[in-house]
Every structure is written in structure tokens, then in C-alpha cells.
Please model this.
Amino acid sequence: MAASKDRPGEGRARKLPGWARVGSVLVRALHLTSCAAILGLQLAAAAGQGSGLWWALAAVSGLVLLAYEWASHPDHWRQLSGWVTPAKLALLGVARLVPALTTAIMLTVFFIAVLGAHLPRRWRHRLLFGAQGSQSG
Model:
């Protein structure tokens, strides 16, 4: 059994083995991606073809979030999390240009987004290159 630790005001928590965390993140990503697909199907059935507004909102909000992350974390572009966002934006561009791939790409982007948000901090913010504390950026 894993060790338990107290978190004041938050109740007890157990530190599970690394494989359990990775499994949890993968199952969470699959679950949320499935829910997004269901929501997308419902929206498509209700609204028909009016997706232009949603594409614009997704693009603008994504770029604003990326700008915020780069402004608040100068090393963001050197971290795994800093490369995930531009990769998602590139995939969304392909989805917009190749409509036949949109569903598969959107599910992939959503899955990547959930993984990126729920991986342990030490993985998300791991520097991919450059020395810790360098003045670049």
C-alpha cells in the first residue's frame, strides 16, 4: 500500500506508484476525448454546418493562452508543455485545410491536450534543451 500524506485543508492523499499515475492520465485522456466526441456529435446534430465561429474562438483563445504562457514563463518554449501547444495549433491548421481528416485530428488534439494538462508537473515542465537558468527567451 502506498504511503499517505496529509494536506491541510484538503484531506489525505496517497502517493501511488508512477505506473498508476501514467495509467490514470491515459484513462482520463481517453475519457475526456470520448466525452468531447459525444458533445461534438450533439452540437453537429443541433447546429448543422455553423462551425466557423467555434474555429475562430478556438484559434484566438489558443493563441492568447500561448502568449500568456510565454509571457509568464520565459522558459516555456524550452519545455515539453511549450512544444505541445504549437503542435496542436499545427494539427488544427491541417484539420482546417483537409476537412476529411478533421474528426481524427480533433480527437488527437483533444487527447494530446488532456495528456499535456494532466501529466506530472516534472514531465510537463521538463526542459528539453538549454541549461537551467539560462537568460535566453
User: Anything to note?
Assistant: The longest strand covers residues 4-7. The chain has a mean pLDDT of 77. Residues 18-47 form the longest helix (30 residues).
